[in-house]
């Protein structure tokens, strides 16, 4: 009998990543779907659809079927997962167990939507793990011990913060301020300061090139291209890293406040551990220049950027597979992990 393939999935607002115990990370694709508006036919997924963003005709829409870490368009999410799973599993469409991450604090309806979409893709058993706990596992923190570790995962749609201990989260929070918020802040700033309309892809590109939330040693400059808001004609302007730091100040402060809030709610016994060990930063937002410095300045915590921060969550979902007994499909009593089985 074909036992299928176990998988761990980071179903992110911006990107979907899939891990298998045998092969490691086997898929890393943008969470984008291109649809024909007239026929509702799906035309492209992943990278192919991402390359259409901002470049489609009026008949075609390239969209993200997840918003703020949860499913906003069930049909498109199911189709996207079906395709990605087929790429990974080939003819072995049956998956006995799937561990997938979800933002902290989402509703039961939102959880069930994820479970149903995965079952439609061939999963027999679905386990949900909160993103902060998955990030901690992927960052190789020893979450099983009775002392605290703190992790802040800055994804595309949400920032998830948690204090781990004894294989669970003692305190946690999730805010809808993350990588996409920095892109939106740049779009807004360029419109106001330069009267130039740019898209999210241009904003993301310049953010990665010269963006920062703490002062750089040397100011950098870059070119943004868009459409003049007055004349409608193509135009480009030069922007500086100092300008982008000003533009992205607000979402950066929101994230710092969320970290401070989690610290204030952390039991005293664990707070000492955090100030001794520091906090680990994961997710794509960890790569934004100065994010570690900004959080450290606001919280007085030592902040460390994990190795391969963008991959920590999917690696954590893969590790979580090992905590589920293969025969009984229940969590092992000897190594309980705070996950939710469906």
Number of helices: 11
CATH class of the largest domain, anyone? Alpha Beta
The coarse overall form would be: flat
Average pLDDT? 92
CATH architecture of the largest domain: 2-Layer Sandwich
Instruction: Assign the structural class, choosing from mainly alpha, mainly beta, alpha/beta, alpha+beta, or little secondary structure.
Output: alpha+beta
CATH fold title of the largest domain = Nucleotidyltransferase, domain 5
Q: What number of structural domains do the residues give?
A: 3
Strand tally: 19
Could you write a compact summary of the structure shown?
The chain has 342 residues and is an alpha+beta fold.
Description of the molecule:
This protein has 342 residues and is an alpha+beta fold. The protein has three domains: 7-132 and 313-341, 2-Layer Sandwich (Nucleotidyltransferase, domain 5), CATH 3.30.420.40; 136-177 and 252-309, ATPase, nucleotide binding domain (Nucleotidyltransferase, domain 5, 2-Layer Sandwich); 179-249, Actin, Chain A, domain 4, CATH 3.90.640. 35% of the residues lie in helices and 28% in strands. It has eleven helices and 19 strands. The strands form five sheets. Strands 3-2-1-9-10-19 form a six-stranded mixed beta sheet, sandwiched between helices. Strand 11 and strand 12 form a beta hairpin. Helix 5 (179-194) packs across helix 6. Residues 326-335 have low confidence and may be disordered.
